[in-house]
Amino acid sequence: MRGRSDVLEPAILGLLDESPLHGYELRKRLNLVLGSFRALSYGSLYPCLKSLVVRGWIVGTDSPDAPPHALSGKRARIVYQLTADGKEHFQSILASSGPAAWEDENFDVRFAFFAQTDAETRLRILEGRRSRLTERLETVRLSFNRARERMDDYTLELQRHGLEGVEREVRWLDDLIDNERGTRRASLNGTGQPTVADPAVDGTRPGTEPKERG
Fold first, then answer.
1. Local structure of 2: helix, strand or coil
2. How far is CA 1 from CA 5, 47, 48, 167, in A?
3. Residue with the larger pLDDT of the pair 34 and 170
4. Which domain holds residue 23?
5. Given 46, 61, 95, which residue is the final one in a domain?
6. Residue 178's pLDDT band (cuts 50, 70, 90)
7. Residue 59 belongs to what H/E stretch?
8. Beta strands, E only, 10-77
9. Average model confidence (pLDDT) across the chain
10. Domain end point (choices 95, 118, 147)
């Protein structure tokens, strides 16, 4: 349960940092952030909202367009918004770039709010994620090569599919990292245009383990 909460909380705070939202709209936007393969139920959303309210990070108020009394038979819609403490906590989340940000569940949410994350932190998270996947890729390849003789055709194809998926994400991360480095150099040079990434300039190599922070 805590694992889902670890993903939900920053996603909720990030969306409410953009604008106040009532529960139904918040759920729809969370499904976009978390992806259709992780469908979100009210049963998991509202306990998380309640926890955030208790900790003082968000507040819920009746919607201005809600009916003034209960004669309509409809419950007033509650609009949730970030508090000052909630904004401060969300900024601390955005500034963190340690191993937790590289993991499968957390990385998707962190990436969804990259527009609100500073360039240096974005780059550290991308490099950390690539490092983590590179390690996983080596493990999967080793396991695949050792066990392939004992696999039937379908199991073999499933393993190959998983291996190709990790390889695709590593290539995707390489492109993102190159773009981030190019954008940063362009900013430093005052051109405003990304430049071609040069590992010699950055002093880093693909697969290099970044320093852990946050």
1. helix
2. 6, 11, 10, 30
3. 170
4. 2-95
5. 95
6. very high
7. strand 58-62
8. 21-22, 58-62
9. 83
10. 95
**Residue 184: per-residue pLDDT:** 73
Shared domain check, 118 and 91: no
Residues 175 and 154 grouped into a single domain: yes
The amino acid at residue 63 is S
Residues 6+ apart with CB under 8 A from 131: 102, 207, 208, 209, 210
Strand partners, 79: 22, 61
pLDDT in tens, 201-212: 444 444 445 545
Instruction: Give me 129's structure tokens.
Output: 């994620």
| Residue 110 in tokens | 């962190």
Residue 182 exposed, middle or buried by CB count within 10 Å (0-12, 13-18, 19+): middle
Q: Which of 206, 7, 2 is nearest to 106 (CA)?
A: 7
**CA 73, CA 5: separation in Å to the nearest integer?**
32
pLDDT at 144: 83
pLDDT of residue 41: 64
Asked if the structure places residue 62 within a domain, the reply is yes
Q: What is the CATH number of the domain that holds 10?
A: 1.10.10.10
Structure tokens, 162: 């998983």
- Residues 9-32 have a mean pLDDT of 93
Instruction: Report how far apart, in Å, the C-alpha atoms of 133 and of each of 33, 136, 141, 198, 208 are.
Output: 21, 5, 12, 22, 12
Q: Are 195 and 186 in contact (CB under 8 A)?
A: yes
